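SUBJECT: A protein chain and its fold
Encoding: whole-number codes for local backbone shapes
Chain under study, with its fold:
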Amino acid sequence: MSDETSRITQLEEIIAHQAKAIEELSDQLTEQWKVVEQMRAKLDRLTERFLSLEEQSLEAPAVTRPPHY
């Protein structure tokens, strides 16, 4: 093998490893994005539930003295 052929082979190997790493990182990013979206949806549901409960508590009758006082 000549020096140029060896260098080209080495560069091709590096490119192949980098391409594989980029693909793996892309897959991980996709999975993380799915998790973030699920958490965002859950947070939205919890926020709605909290606001609903808060509104219900505001509508509750005020605490008053019992009639026997």
